[in-house]
């Protein structure tokens, strides 16, 4: 079985939870900045963001999760532990699942980010098959963990369109659900993978 990574930082030390290697960031070490702006594409929209410490500027200590929620207003990405432990803040960066609470925004210059708000079809506004399967199979309760789980599942299906149950469990092993919706989640991801096959 292939193990998957949710990336935290390139400069990080790996730690292991279950079979999934994860990477712990040195996020607290704020880098020295030479650039004045950074460019991000978020859900297909380009953004040029000024680095600084005024309101609406990107402080070098801001995480990607903070920028998405507080600067860009994309509050679908949730922050729970804010420490790389729960997976709630997972987004896609260049199609890979990353923990946005563990990435500094200034390290994301030039990256393409997809958040839960960008998962539906941008032209038809139709829900992604994963979102529809989660609704159809009631694969959530309070829903707080759901955006992160959906983004991890999206990364999985992009890489492996026909996962086994074990593949799904492995891919989502870094996403915790306090409402214990995991069984329905696995069923929903498998159901979504069958759409269009
Ligand atoms: S909020 Fe990022 S991993 Fe928990
Ligand atoms: S549905 Fe409530 S935390 Fe997962």
In the CATH hierarchy, the architecture of the largest domain is Roll
Q: Superfamily at the CATH H level of the largest domain?
A: Beta-grasp domain
What share of residues is helical? 25-40%
What's the CATH topology label of the largest domain? Ubiquitin-like (UB roll)
The unreliable regions are 10-24
Layout of strands and helices, then pairs:
Blueprint: E1 13-17, E2 20-24, E3 37-42, E4 45-50, H1 64-71, E5 90-93, E6 96-99, E7 111-114, H2 129-136, H3 146-159, H4 165-171, H5 182-194
Parallel strand pairs: 3-7
Antiparallel strand pairs: 1-2, 3-4, 5-6, 5-7
Helix pairs in contact: 2-5
Bound molecules: FE2/S2 (inorganic) cluster (2 copies).
One FE2/S2 (inorganic) cluster binds at residues 140-146, 177-179, 181.
Characterise the protein shown here:
This protein has 197 residues and is α+β, with helices and mostly antiparallel strands. The protein folds into two domains: 22-116, Beta-grasp domain (Ubiquitin-like (UB roll)); 129-195, [2Fe-2S]-binding domain (DNA polymerase, domain 1, Orthogonal Bundle), CATH 1.10.150. It is built from five helices and seven strands. The chain has helices at residues 64-71, 129-136, 146-159, 165-171, 182-194; strands at residues 13-17, 20-24, 37-42, 45-50, 90-93, 96-99, 111-114. Strands 4-3-7-5-6 form a five-stranded mixed sheet, covered by helices on one side. A two-stranded antiparallel ribbon has the order 1-2. β5 and β6 form a beta hairpin. α2 (129-136) packs across α5 (182-194). The longest helix is centred in the C-terminal third of the chain and has 14 residues, at 146-159. It is elongated. The two termini are 22 Å apart. Residues 10-24 have low confidence and may be disordered. The structure holds FE2/S2 (inorganic) cluster (2 copies). One FE2/S2 (inorganic) cluster (FES) is lined by residues 79-82, 84-89, 99, 101. Residues 79-82, 84-89, 99, 101 line the site of one FE2/S2 (inorganic) cluster.
């Amino acid at each position: 079985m292939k193990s998957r990574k949710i990336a935290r930082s390139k400069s990080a030390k790996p730690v292991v939870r279950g079979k999934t290697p994860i990477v712990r960031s040195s996020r607290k070490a704020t880098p020295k900045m030479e650039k004045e702006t950074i460019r991000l594409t978020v859900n297909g929209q380009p953004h040029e963001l000024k680095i600084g410490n005024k309101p609406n500027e990107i402080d070098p200590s801001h995480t990607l999760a903070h920028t998405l929620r507080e600067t860009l207003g994309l509050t679908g990405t949730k922050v729970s532990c804010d420490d790389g432990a729960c997976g709630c803040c997972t987004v896609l960066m260049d199609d890979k699942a990353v923990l946005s609470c563990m990435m500094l925004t200034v390290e994301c210059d030039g990256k393409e980010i997809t958040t839960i708000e960008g998962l539906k079809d941008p032209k038809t506004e139709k829900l992604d098959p994963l979102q529809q399967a989660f609704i159809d199979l009631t694969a959530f309760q309070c829903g707080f963990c759901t955006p992160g789980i959906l983004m991890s599942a999206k990364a999985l299906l992009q890489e492996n369109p026909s996962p086994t149950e074990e593949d799904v469990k492995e891919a989502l092993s870094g996403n915790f659900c306090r409402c214990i919706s995991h069984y329905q989640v696995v069923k929903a991801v498998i159901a979504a993978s069958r759409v269009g096959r």
